[in-house]
Amino acid sequence: MKENKYNEETFFYKYGQMKRSKEGLSGAGEWEALQRLLPDFKNKQVLDLGCGYGWHSIYAAGNGAKFVIGVDLSEKMIEIAREKTKYENVKYQVGAMEDVDFPDETFDVVMSSLAFHYVEDFSSLVENVFRMLKSNGVFVFTVEHPIFTAEGSQDWVYNDAGEIEHFPVDNYFKEGLRSTQFLEESVTKYHRTMTTYINSLIEAGFTIDRVVEPTPPDHMMDIPGMKDELRRPMMLIISASKKKVTIKWIYRRENRSTRQ
């Protein structure tokens, strides 16, 4: 995410015109699915990585969080987040999520919305999140689905009449950089497989609690293009937790390190 596309004037303006930018969580097709996976925020210490406009940080504070720290690389995003946030226990920082460095076991909850596909080294980020989480802490995030990011164009294949034929999936197992078009602007993202997402969490020590491929709710189906979202997954939601460390888990980690 160090590319900082969201600080560019034209791109930032176009992003601000999106439904989810104007309406907040209620304008996001995946929100209802994500909301069901979020933990009880009451008296929790929360970190929001790639916080954007601060919608999720505000939600956490509004549901009883003790304090929330939102981090985003875009100064423009943080400026909007501060304007929208009325809770004094929510603080925002400008910075790359890959560089976040809080003390061990600082947070009860770490969350992120549609930001990790901008990160090149997902494994290192996950290991850092695990370190910053308290025992029994919760890690919930959304990313663009690997099927959506694989081919790179992130657009449908159309027939001569301009009608959708299918969605392209290619080079699925070739992980890494993708240069794509988002809001008619060139954007750099990173593709990784479902296996990499899940195994990176497991290898860092997390327990996978839920994996969801969200679909838009029925009440949004009248919005142009929403019905087509049922033809392929666009997003992926994963909920994981940091269970209390056991002797067996320590042995397994040490034994793996020895074999390496």
UniProtKB/TrEMBL annotation:
Domain of life the protein comes from: Bacteria
Molecular function GO labels: S-adenosylmethionine-dependent methyltransferase activity
Key word Transferase present: yes
Keywords in alphabetical order: Methyltransferase, Transferase
InterPro entries in alphabetical order: Methyltransf_11, SAM-dependent_MTases_sf
Domain Methyltransferase type: 47-141
GO biological process: one example: methylation
SUPFAM superfamilies: S-adenosyl-L-methionine-dependent methyltransferases
Pfam families named in the record: Methyltransf_11
UniProt protein name: Methyltransferase domain-containing protein
Source organism (scientific name): Aliicoccus persicus
